Task: structure prediction
Amino acid sequence: MRETATDRPTDVLTEGQIGAPLGERATLVQFSTAFCQPCRATRRILTEVADLVPGVAHVEIDAESRLDLVRQLDILRTPTVLVLDRSGKITKTASGQPRKADVLAALGHAVSQEPDEM
Result:
């Protein structure tokens, strides 16, 4: 995963903005376009990871139909993946087709920010 700039006007995304429920522990948000070949491979990888890690959701957003959000988040290419913690805070932004190991590492960071349970 190639990281992009972390200065964003929005640091937290809501269920309303992404059009789906947030994961209990983390959410992988993928911005794609219809003819993007790497987007298909990214979808497979993120789906596998979400199925593998309990409490993680994968949400794919069509960038062309959500230009408002694309502009707000300064998404410059597809695929772009945002890793959100359980509250919707963006903990990682990356563009290009990710490696499964990189997605798992980014998720580990997002999940490690969970409050300790007693």
The chain has a mean pLDDT of 89. The radius of gyration is 13 Å. The longest helix spans residues 37-52. The helical segments are 15-18, 37-52, 67-73, 100-112.
